[in-house]
Amino acid sequence: MRSARSRPSSSSRLTLLSFPAAEVGGHCWWSWWAAQSLRAKHLGQPAAVTAAYADSVRALVALLVTLNEQVDFLHGQVEDYLGRHPNAEIIRSQPGLGAMLSARVLAEFGDDPHRYASAKARKNYAGTSPITRASGRKKVVTARHVRNGRLIDALIAQAFSALRVSAGARAYYEKQRARGIEFNAALRQLANRLVGILHGCLKAGTPYDEATAWPHQAHALAA
């Protein structure tokens, strides 16, 4: 079916249900726009040029299909190996951490239980904790620029995802925003807080608990 869609003459006859977005439920605007665009009249090319482009499209589609298959395979491998780690349950229980982010966070932090003497040490390594410089009456708080880029990217992604799944994380983020802190800085502060929570869970050997992690938010909701 892909080969039939690689030529303009064949693509113009596609129906709305032929598009993936329509197959998974509902006719989204993208499917309608794509179908209308393919049906519109366009300047043509000689048959040899059209055939050459069609071959290129088929080759690219085959590469993308293979790439997607390998991505799914590697995703399964990561989940499998992560599941064998003794701290997998604790790490996976953290809000905003799926299999891939959990594996990245575990790999970048390492699993030596004595590597970080405190939550502050873990935050400093992660690069989520700010740097405070004071001189006389002046005090400046800035983000750390010398840090593990792979780890900080994973932690910021976790913080962003946690906004949807954790009421405590959302409340903490909104509190920072209400103080006038801009989006990226507020997200970084949330990531910093989540690193501290992860450290506590690993030290105690217990999975994440929303009420324990955000006691003030839990009390506010109960009231």
Structure description:
It is a single chain. This protein has 223 residues and is mainly alpha-helical. The chain is 66% helix and 4% strand. The chain is built from 13 helices and two strands. It has helices spanning 2-5, 8-11, 20-23, 29-39, 47-83, 88-92, 99-109, 119-126, 149-165, 167-178, 183-204, 210-213, 215-222, and strands spanning 131-135, 138-142. Strands 1-2 form a two-stranded antiparallel ribbon. A hairpin with a 2-residue loop joins strand 1 and strand 2. The chain is elongated, with a radius of gyration of 25 Å. The N and C termini lie far apart (59 Å). Residues 22-26 have low confidence and may be disordered.
Sum up the structure in keywords.
two-stranded antiparallel ribbon, 13 helices, 2 strands, mainly alpha, 223 residues
TL;DR?
The protein is mostly helical.
What share of the residues does DSSP label as strand, in percent? under 5%
Find the count of extended strands (DSSP E, 2+ residues).
Answer: 2
Rg over CA atoms: 25 Å
**Helical content band:** 55-70%
Number of helices: 13
Calculate the mean pLDDT score and round it: 83
Which series of helices and strands comes N to C?
HHHHHHHHEEHHHHH
Shape verdict: elongated
State the major sheet: 2 strands, antiparallel
Strand order of the largest sheet: 1-2
Q: Catalogue the unreliable spans.
A: 22-26
Layout of helices and strands:
Elements: H1 2-5, H2 8-11, H3 20-23, H4 29-39, H5 47-83, H6 88-92, H7 99-109, H8 119-126, E1 131-135, E2 138-142, H9 149-165, H10 167-178, H11 183-204, H12 210-213, H13 215-222
Antiparallel strand pairs: 1-2
Helix pairs in contact: 5-7, 7-9, 8-11, 9-10, 9-11, 10-11
